[in-house]
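job 3f2a | input accepted
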Amino acid sequence: MPVSGFDHAALPTADSERLLAFYKALGFAVEGEEAWRAGRMPIFSIVCGDQKINVHTEALMARRDDPTFLRGPTAEPGCGDYCFVWDGGIDTCLAALQAAGVAPIDGPVPRVGGRSGGTALGVSVYARDPDENLLEFISYAPDDVTRYAPGRG
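job 3f2a | predicted structure (153 res):
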């Protein structure tokens, strides 16, 4: 198969400043913020490893009915569902969420993630961002799997 990976996704927002502050508080890097603030770019990106999420800001969302604007036709704030790999164990994830003022909505729970061809067992915590996108943070740390999924790892 010539497709070798995943490069980026797009995420519409109703409040760029609030979304930016949220992801920064969780430790995500942001690319293009300065150019976006200066009006040179209509987007900024939340970076995670070698992938990124391009944030479709209010200015782009105002063009939602423009047929030349390349976007999912039904993409609206809150449509996202993303799973991020969390290194360092699920307890550090819970602590980071708490420090950022984010309440988990589910977890820690065992989940099968995307690693090993979609067969790897991990432990996940779920939360929502300010636009109500569903966020999953999965840890593949062996200690987490042993603790939260005994007999399954």
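job 3f2a | The chain has a mean pLDDT of 92.
job 3f2a | closed
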